[in-house]
Design goal:
Layout (H helix, E strand, L loop, with lengths): L26 E6 L1 H6 E11 L3 H8 L9 E5 L2 E5 L20 E4 L2 H12 L3 E11 L2 E11 L2 H30 L1
Antiparallel strand pairs: 1-6, 2-5, 2-7, 3-4, 4-5, 6-7
Length: 180
Amino acid sequence: MYVPKEAQPKKGGGADKAKDGEKGGKRKLVAQNKKARHDYAIIDVYEAGLVLTGTEVKSLRQGRASLVDGFVQIDGGEAWLHNAHIPEYAQGTWTNHSARRKRKLLLHREEIDKLAVKAEETGHTVVPLALYFKDGRAKAEIALARGKKEYDKRQTLREKQDRRDTDRAIAAAKRKQRGA
């Protein structure tokens, strides 16, 4: 018996959609730059698309990438991701990509202009925070950031440790309360 597509039940529900962002979709994290959050004070965060070749996408889908030395540069009205390491695809042929080539970032014109003006200010830079797939498309999370001084880094670590100690003490008190 023929059942029209509109009348068929939808697969996958839809509960897993709309995790973050208004368009919805889950984020499958590929690489994260934890050092950037330690070394820089994050001012503003942007989501940018990436222009990739086929072997780069396949390598990313295997979860292989590094953003440790990466940075973003605005050049000629376009945003470029430099030094992000996406290793060559193992099953690739002569069409394989260069591991550290510069990759174009897809942003709106207003965002590029805003980043260009802010990045020229003293002490500001644009750094990549994460690479991930969202709705099957490769995305980069980039941030306008200001470099932290050494004492700022120590202060952040101290606050993080204090928060962790407080959480442990609260959890221990709750356990003790349940046991009594």
